[in-house]
What we know:
2 copies of one chain form a homodimer.
Chain A: E1 4-9, E2 13-14, E3 20-21, H1 27-39, E4 45-48, H2 52-66, H3 69-73, H4 75-81, E5 84-87, H5 90-101, E6 106-109, H6 121-127, E7 134-139, H7 146-151, E8 154-155, H8 170-182
Parallel strand pairs in A: 1-4, 1-7, 4-5, 6-7, 6-8
Antiparallel strand pairs in A: 2-3
Helix pairs in contact in A: 1-4, 1-8, 6-8
Amino acid sequence: MVNLYVALVHYPVVNKQGDIIAAAVTNLDLHDIARSACTYGARAFYVVTPLTDQMRMIEKIVSHWTTGGGGRYNPARREALSLIRIESSLSDVLEDIRAKEGINAEIVVTSAKKRAGSLGYQRFKEMIHDGRPYLMVLGTAWGLSETVMETADHVLAPVSGPADYNHLSVRSAAAIILDRLVGC
Amino acid sequence: MVNLYVALVHYPVVNKQGDIIAAAVTNLDLHDIARSACTYGARAFYVVTPLTDQMRMIEKIVSHWTTGGGGRYNPARREALSLIRIESSLSDVLEDIRAKEGINAEIVVTSAKKRAGSLGYQRFKEMIHDGRPYLMVLGTAWGLSETVMETADHVLAPVSGPADYNHLSVRSAAAIILDRLVGC
């Protein structure tokens, strides 16, 4: 199994105009990315928001599917949503991984835009077998803010097809990236 | 570009108990699969339900994002949702493709379960360049009914990772399959 963690960031991200915002949490982001993370053996799925009402909402959703009625109805969903950890910032995520692993995670951020020197999938696929922990960071809304991009060790190449259309949902992008890295 | 069509079927599918049902339409299925279809150059994305109130709801969503305010706000979403065609049955989908192409589409159904003789991704990837039209059929709820499986020319191998967990969302499965077939 690979030593890979996934984080979905709701702040700081940008809106359509490029302003830094805190995005609202989308229920199906939690379900879909948890299910993909579980399929491909990620160690944990961090959902990052500093907003306390949003943190409470995530806790309510997760507990319904892990310790509540949802989990009894659908044990497969319980297994997936058990991977979710709620954190108020990316630095808290990194602290949590460091506490588990004893070393810092390498931060790999994702973006729909092409950037010079970005990390290719084949190279990242090789790296995640080197024993170090890796944190793959996904942004909501119109993507991660530049401040997050700058803290990264690597920027992953965008997912693209032949059609020159780069507007996948974050749920789809997460699924595709995990499949490219770990899929059979 | 490949000659590939995608269909998302809401009837006949099965529920958790294996009964045949008509599943409710999920808004984000329309958005996510349309965006993936657009990314990978699919010719059309058929949403299949025989329920007239559900058909009207899909029309309302699609028109908001194609001819209404949503499309003006987000032209990329307009481009994706323009791929959506609403049909009441899979035979109507096949009829529509035959009218466009002059020949029948090869039907490739998807399933989360392993089956003997299933079509592998490498083989399907080669096939979609042979000029014939292909229809990839996805099921909602607990998957396509046996009656649909039996009409297929091919059953695609399930998407799986190393973790022996096969409970991806249909949105994630669609994204991964399209990436495996057409992704760079």
